[in-house]
Specification:
6% strand; rod-shaped; two-stranded antiparallel sheet; two-stranded antiparallel ribbon; f41 fragment of flagellin, N-terminal domain
Length: 304
Amino acid sequence: MRITNSQITAMMHNSMNASSAELGKLMQQMATGQRIMLPSDDPIASVRVLRVQREEASLEQYAKNIANVSGSLSTQEANLKSTSDAMLNVRDLLLWAANGSNTSEDLAAMAGELAIIEDTILSFANVRDEEGRYLFSGTLSDTQAISFDAGTQSYSITGNDKHRQAAVANGVLVEENVTALGVFGAGADMLNQLHGLVATLQDPALDASDPAVRQQILDTLNSLDDSHAQVLGAITELGGRQNTLTLLKGSNEEVSLVNQKIEGELSQLDYAGATIDLNNYQLALGATQKTYLKINEMSLFALL
């Protein structure tokens, strides 16, 4: 079979174009450090890289969720600790008021302090985050956790007992709040008893020696102790959740490191091997070009 000059030229062009294309692709890989420029370069590895990248995106979201939940839990814990401190101050005052040696004027002075602490406890219960959401209102985050009705002179829980949840790991949800309902009870009894006691002690007609007054103080003290125990339990619960978040954060970071290693092994270029391939492509392209020039110089007239 006779091969024409045009066929030889086409073969040389195709060979040089193929070598130039491979050389260009290799230089682009070396410039970016990526072995896979297109899915067709390694379909199986490309699918695995996509899976790893999807998991990494999920881990990034988990990390953001953990940071947000941890911040919210810290704010709640700080407010509950302040609530605990305020309750202990109330307890000291109630024990002092119950000792039976106080005058009506002494009890009225104590009532003034108790009223201030009462307002402070309410402010802690109705704390909001940086987005203006009430932290202790359950899922009713746009509603105060505890409201005071001036008409009836009573407190009521206006939030609910539901918990907000956030995904912090694959298949793991963490509750991001405690509720005023769980801490103060459905009737907010402690606050109502404290408010009633303050009104009693501030009454100008108060008889400091009246046994009913002392009994009211003791009843308020018992209710306070019950609520304080709930507050301490909530603080412990929040601390446990923080520990869980810390463990999950560490676990997620370890998984992320493994994913990064796998992705690197699958997609990153082996520069040592690429350098060898680059030399080979350059030699092949140079040899093809020289061969093409030699063939073009060949002529029957040169033999005459």
